[in-house]
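agent> fetching stored inputs for the adenosine-5'-diphosphate docking request
agent> found them:
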Amino acid sequence: PSRAAARTALAALEAIETTIRAHAEELGRIDAVAGDGDHGIGMRRGSEAAHVAARQALERGAGAGTLLHHAADAWADRAGGTSGALWGVILRALGTALGDTERPDAHAVSVGVDAAADGVMRLGKAETGDKTMVDALVPFADALSEAVGQGAPLTAAWDTAATAADAAAKATAELLPRLGRARPHAEKSLGTPDAGAVSLALIVRAVHGALAA
Ligand code: ADP
Ligand code: MG
Ligand code: MG
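agent> prediction call returned; pasting tokens
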């Protein structure tokens, strides 16, 4: 297996845990506006468990794909909640697309992110505009594939896409939730962004740091 790719995947999961820890209270507050307030706690549990599982997988000699599959299972098992299951789907789709053998190029990563977005929409049945993490994930995937298609190297393309995800997450403040726990309190959430979209934007920004290191 490619050790370099596995080490990068581990560094990305470490960066995710760090940014989620730093923003957990804020994510809980955002989720509490129209949801049940547990998004920070759930994301912290999931990202910590994923990081631990990834480190153990690397120690056993796993490649990036296998490492991401272990991280996905750990995240989904430990996080609970809707977002935990969906982050499991994201990491599993990435792991399947990247595989273990070669250092993935920008195109392979972009294909993996597209598969992750498809997987989230298939499991959660949300579409863009429903005020969920999909509203940050789809713009992220689209911006990444556009930048990669124009020939940008992975780190630069990811930077552009992370900026798009941040803008898209902020723009969810103007949306009314149509799915999930926030739906019964739809009008209360106007003016507040979706918690899962905000955490997704934080995560892809942190992963850029790991890719650029
Ligand atoms: P729970 O809603 O079970 O308490 P979390 O608070 O961890 O789980 O996550 C809430 C976030 O999950 C929402 O802000 C939204 O982004 C995302 N979410 C909820 N339902 C869906 C869905 N059907 N599809 C995609 N994302 C969803
Ligand atoms: Mg919640
Ligand atoms: Mg909950």
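agent> quick read of the result: Residues 3-34 form the longest helix (32 residues).
agent> awaiting further instructions
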